[in-house]
Structures are given as structure tokens and as C-alpha cells.
Amino acid sequence: MTGQADLRRGPLSHEAELETFLRDLLKQLRSETGTIHVLDAEKQLLHLVAQVGLPPQLLGVVETIPVGKGIAGQVVEQNKPVTICNLQTDSSGVAKPGAKQTGVGGALCVPVRDGGKIVGALGVGTVRQYDYTADQQRKLEEMGRRVAEILKG
Q1: What is the C-alpha end-to-end distance of the chain, expressed in Å?
Q2: Domain that holds residue 72
Q3: CA 129, 52, 41: angle at the middle one, nearest 5?
Q4: pTM of this prediction?
Q5: Cα separation of 98 and 101, whole Å?
Q6: Burial label, 9 (beta-carbon count in 10 A; 0-12, 13-18, 19+)
Q7: pLDDT tens per residue, the chain (153 residues)?
Q8: Could you please report the per-residue DSSP string of 3-53?
Q9: Residue 77: which residues within 8 A CB-CB, separation 6 or more?
Q10: Non-local CB neighbours of 148 within 8 Å, separated by 6+ positions
């Protein structure tokens, strides 16, 4: 396994710390949902390590995401943020069909980087139609670096 896969097997304290981190971040961004996925580079899969606000029936859908699929998978594949103003009406094809079940309107997802290396994805969403600003995107990218630090422990 790669180093990234080991990150998701870290102590439970990481999960609690990441969930607290997400809750604080969501308050700052006035958003209701958040996810943190860790990349298993060898298998080209993203694994959910923390979430806030997702409906229980969706957890199985977002637990493991192939690189290139869905919002988080596109973020990792393209190495750049993805933002959607209204996930409920989006027709770009980036979001998986099941993503509408989240009830999310506006969504923003950024790569989690450890230095120049992508180690995962950090996503937030709000129930209302919303365009995240460039400043909010920069903040989320900065928070992605903090996530990488937490994962390294």
C-alpha cells in the first residue's frame, strides 16, 4: 500500500479531529455538508474519512469514489477545484446521479495536498443555490493543507 492508504487507517482521534475541523469550517463558510476523502494512489480510489451533514443513505455511495468519477474524483484527476452553483440542476455530468440525493445546492471541492502531492479531496456544500467566491475557494484550499497536516499526525 502507498503512504496515502496508511493515512486513512490512522487512529480514531484523526476521525474525531477531522470531523471537528469540518464542523468549524462549515460554520465559517455558512455551509451544511462537508466531506474529506483520502487518496489511495495505488488503487486510484478515494476513501471517505470524515463527513458532516450527509444523509445516512448516501454514506455507502460516497464511501469509496474512483478517481475521475463524481466531484471529488474529478478534483483529484484534474488537480484543481470544482465548483457547482446548484447541484440539483447541474447538467455538466461532473456530479454522480446520486449526488442530488444530498440535497446540496452549491458545492465546492478542492484537492488536499501534502506539498505538491495530492493526498485527497475536501468538499463543502450548502442546501441553497450558491456560488462560492474566489476567496472562499482559496480558504478551502488552505484548509486542505491543514487536513493533510492532520492526516500526517
Answers
A1: 18
A2: 3-152
A3: 100
A4: 0.84
A5: 6
A6: exposed
A7: 333 434 444 444 588 899 999 999 999 999 999 999 999 999 999 999 999 998 888 888 899 999 999 889 999 999 999 987 645 555 565 655 555 555 567 789 999 999 989 999 999 988 888 889 999 999 999 999 999 999 887
A8: HHHHHTTS-HHHHHHHHHHHHHHHHHHT-SEEEEEEEETTTTEEEEEEEES
A9: 67, 68
A10: 112, 113, 114, 119, 120
DSSP character string of 73-94? HHHHHHTS-EEES-TTT--SS-
Domain of residue 61, CATH code? 3.30.450.40
Number of domains making up the chain? 1
- Torsion angle of C-alpha atoms 14, 15, 17, 21, degrees rounded to 10: 130
Q: Which three cell numbers mark 46? A: 478515494
Task: Give the SS3 label for residue 45.
Answer: strand
